[in-house]
């Protein structure tokens, strides 16, 4: 049985190490804006230490691009000011959040999360996820 578990860990480490390994994206309203929460499968499976991983992100809109910022946990908080700037022109284009996971072993291409935002909404839905 232990051999199967070891093999499972080796296969997971190999394949997850080739991609961003981020999943289960959820957006929730906060008092100051929104929080994008996600899972890091490499951390969840114990294949890398949480302390050795950080996440750089950037928010974009049709005519807006924020500075890149870095967080140490799989949670990104975006304030209303940044959200408003991203949809300033009032187009129907969703807000894009690009996330670059930084690890000691690899630094994959970013994953991009697209969602609609309105200050009057209580619920948010991920419209699309783009990888690589």
Briefly say what this structure is.
The protein contains three helices and nine strands.
What descriptors fit this protein?
alpha+beta, 40% strand, 9 strands, 132 residues, six-stranded antiparallel sheet, Immunoglobulin-like
Architecture blueprint of SSEs:
Blueprint: H1 2-16, E1 22-29, E2 33-40, H2 41-44, E3 54-61, E4 64-65, E5 69-71, E6 75-79, H3 80-86, E7 95-102, E8 111-115, E9 126-131
Antiparallel strand pairs: 1-2, 2-6, 3-4, 3-5, 3-7, 7-8, 8-9
| Overall structural domain count | 1
CATH superfamily: Immunoglobulins
Biggest sheet, open or closed, and with what strands and sense? 6 strands, antiparallel
CATH topology term: Immunoglobulin-like
Order of helices and strands: HEEHEEEEHEEE
Return residue spans where pLDDT drops below 50 for at least 5 consecutive residues: none
What does this structure look like?
This protein is of the alpha+beta class and 132 residues long. It has a single domain (2-131), classed as Immunoglobulins (Immunoglobulin-like, Sandwich). The chain is 20% helix and 40% strand. It has helices spanning 2-16, 41-44, 80-86, and strands spanning 22-29, 33-40, 54-61, 64-65, 69-71, 75-79, 95-102, 111-115, 126-131. Strand 7 and strand 8 form a beta hairpin. The relative contact order is 0.20. The model has no long low-confidence stretch (mean pLDDT 85).
